[in-house]
């Protein structure tokens, strides 16, 4: 009788490596977050090209970019910039996470594997000045996006709105003829306790038309709003899991 | 209790060359039928750029066509956008007066300010300012109708003395209304002596406090017009059939289609934080309840919407005549004066069925309500005698 291993399924940790998992399971508290959010009208064809069939576009189509700095998280401080398509999941307003840049490798792994946030590793900066908040998103030699909120005025924190996120959790297949081992959509509803909120004039620019990280695919045709918030938030368990 | 029909002129995709033509002409046929059958009012919205949801961007033209085809039914702007970036208030007054003349004094003048980014952004209209713009316009327009020389120096528009013509047939002017989708707007309507035109599709219970607050405040109003219109108008869906089962089948299609189209609008509060728009999104309640009704719960069992089960909520006039009477009585009990009905969306219900539903309503439901008890005359205010609308 051979000696079999003792790492049974119930002893397998939440993620790998088993001897020292890369990150803890959700929920992740993210206190003291600073988030710049730009909402802008964008191109209809681009929106339809990149939305899953279960989601539909609004009229007019719009996109959202959030740039967040999380000073505390279970994997340490990190910054995350995410580009969303404003969409509808049947009757409700959602943000479909299209692409993201994060500046922490542990956070990148967790965001991709757990929440389906399609992250790549890069550089994200958020600079807060008097009445102005500026963000820069870069990957390799390319500056993918520059965002600014100017003429910021304090606003009622209760008016701040972050829509639930829909993302695609995807594990590539390894069996012949099977492209995906797992592909599903998840809805994530982070909680937000907003302490301070500001609204101002927004600007969105894509300095590099990078083929590798094509943020310019969702052009800014008309900026709708720019807001900045200081809040406690989290990354919770998925609220819904849906077939793709 | 009085009854009316309400038109968004929804044109569902896929579109073909005659899609809009069919919707417009079906709606006109429905108004003709409503006129013959004893409905009191037909209302048309003004919306711009709201693909599928509403292709009714020139309601004055639509209502003029309705006026030419009907004899008795009152015709309502439900509502006209009175913000200067959309329509100069003088143009609002002119067009409304012309329609009042064409219809021989059958106009109900509803006012509003839009709740979508699609529209406000399209006209470069600052959302924060829409309430003030609306307020200025509703103070000015009645004066345009009643003064030989009107001039205005306001915050959002100004003009030198001009005689704004034509003048309406109804004297002193048509009844004024405002679209109400929040408790705050109901109070603001009451403070100004303007009728409360409900546009959020809620249940009687959800409306009850709003009606009470409106009634309380309107008693001490400072009317913007020459008389007080203190009526409350509720809105819901209507589909009557011979059996509840058949009616709910078609009524569910109607509610689902409407909710689905509404969900694709871009409500101001979803994209632009503004103290002028604090409601949780456009037609949120009906979308929430419809979603509940059609979505499996995490346990996999259908969740019942409150008050009626499934997609049909309490207060919706969907069912056999007996059921519809019971549902409308709920509205009557909370003090609503009038109910207006959405009778189709995106031609989801075939035209013959819509017309049959209207006929069944007229034959079996209307007689159950004492029209004589309805509040047909505007109330007097500030010592001025109100003049009744033309019959």
CATH architecture of chain A: Beta Barrel
Could you state the CATH homologous superfamily of chain B? Luciferase-like domain
In round numbers, the mean pLDDT of chain A is 97
Number of strands of chain B: 11
CATH class of chain B: Alpha Beta
Any guess at the CATH architecture of chain B? Answer: Alpha-Beta Barrel
**Gross geometry of chain A:** globular
Structural class of chain A: mainly beta
Q: What portion of the residues of chain B fall into strands of 2 or more residues? A: 15-25%
Under CATH, the homologous superfamily of chain A reads Acetoacetate decarboxylase-like
> Regarding quaternary structure, how should these chains be classified?
heterodimer
Give the tally of β-strands of chain A.
Answer: 13
Total number of helices of chain A:
2
Total domain count of chain A: 1
Q: Report the C-alpha radius of gyration of chain B, rounded.
A: 20 Å
């Amino acid at each position: 009788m051979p000696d079999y291993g003792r790492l049974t399924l119930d002893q397998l940790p939440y993620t790998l490596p088993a001897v020292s998992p890369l990150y803890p399971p959700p929920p992740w508290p993210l206190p003291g977050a600073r988030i710049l959010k730009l909402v802008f009208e964008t191109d209809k064809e681009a929106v339809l090209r990149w939305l899953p069939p279960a989601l539909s576009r609004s009229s007019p189509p719009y996109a959202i970019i959030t740039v967040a700095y999380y000073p505390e998280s279970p994997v340490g401080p990190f910054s995350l910039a995410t580009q969303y398509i404003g969409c509808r999941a049947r009757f409700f307003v959602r943000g479909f996470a299209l692409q993201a840049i994060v500046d922490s490798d542990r956070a990148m792994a967790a965001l991709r594997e757990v929440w389906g946030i399609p992250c790549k590793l890069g550089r994200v900066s958020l600079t807060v000045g008097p009445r102005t908040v500026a963000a820069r998103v870069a990957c390799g030699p390319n500056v993918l996006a520059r965002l600014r909120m100017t003429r910021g005025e304090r606003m009622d924190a209760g008016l701040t709105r972050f829509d639930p996120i829909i993302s695609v959790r995807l594990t590539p297949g390894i069996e012949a003829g099977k492209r995906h081992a797992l592909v599903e959509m998840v809805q994530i509803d982070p909680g937000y306790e907003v302490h301070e909120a500001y609204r101002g004039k927004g600007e969105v620019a894509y300095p590099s038309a990078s083929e590798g990280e094509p943020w310019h695919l969702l052009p800014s045709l008309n900026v709708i709003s720019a807001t900045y918030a200081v809040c406690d938030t989290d990354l919770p368990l998925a609220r819904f899991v849906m077939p793709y | 209790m009085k009854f009316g029909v309400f038109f968004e002129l929804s044109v569902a995709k896929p579109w073909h060359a005659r899609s809009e033509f069919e919707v417009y002409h079906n709606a006109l046929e429905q108004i003709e039928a409503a006129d013959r059958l004893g409905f009191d009012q037909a209302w048309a919205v003004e919306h711009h750029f709201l693909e599928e949801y509403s292709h009714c961007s020139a309601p004055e033209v639509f209502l003029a066509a309705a006026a030419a085809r009907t004899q008795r039914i009152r015709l309502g702007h439900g509502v006209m956008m009175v913000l200067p970036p959309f329509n100069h208030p003088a143009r609002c007054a002119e067009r409304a007066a012309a329609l009042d003349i064409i219809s021989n004094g059958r106009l109900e003048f509803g006012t509003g300010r839009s709740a979508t980014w699609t529209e406000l952004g399209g006209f470069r209209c600052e959302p924060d300012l829409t309430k003030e713009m609306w307020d200025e316009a509703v103070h000015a327009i009645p004066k345009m109708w009643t003064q030989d020389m009107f001039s205005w120096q306001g915050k959002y528009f100004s003009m030198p003395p001009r005689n704004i013509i034509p003048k309406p047939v109804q004297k002193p002017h048509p009844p004024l209304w405002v679209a109400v989708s929040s408790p705050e707007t109901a109070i603001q309507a009451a403070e100004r002596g303007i009728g409360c035109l409900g546009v959020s599709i809620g249940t009687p219970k959800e409306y009850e406090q709003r009606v009470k607050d409106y009634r309380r405040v309107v008693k001490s109003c400072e009317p913007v017009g020459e008389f007080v219109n203190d009526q409350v108008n509720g809105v819901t869906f209507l589909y009557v059939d011979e059996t509840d089962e058949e009616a709910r089948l078609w009524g569910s299609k109607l509610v689902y289609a409407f909710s689905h189209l509404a969900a694709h609008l871009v409500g101001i509060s979803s994209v632009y934080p503004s103290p002028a728009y604090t409601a949780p999104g456009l037609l949120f309640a009906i979308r929430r309840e419809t979603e509940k009704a059609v979505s499996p719960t995490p346990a996999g069992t259908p969740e019942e919407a409150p008050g009626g089960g499934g997609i049909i909520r309490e207060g919706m006039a969907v069912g056999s005549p007996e059921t519809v009477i019971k549902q409308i009585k709920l509205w009557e009990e909370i003090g609503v004066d009038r109910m207006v009905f959405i009778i189709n969306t995106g031609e989801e219900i075939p035209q013959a069925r819509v017309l049959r539903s209207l006929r069944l309503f007229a034959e079996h439901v209307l007689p159950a309500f004492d029209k004589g008890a309805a509040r047909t005359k505007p109330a007097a205010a500030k010592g001025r005698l109100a003049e009744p609308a033309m019959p």
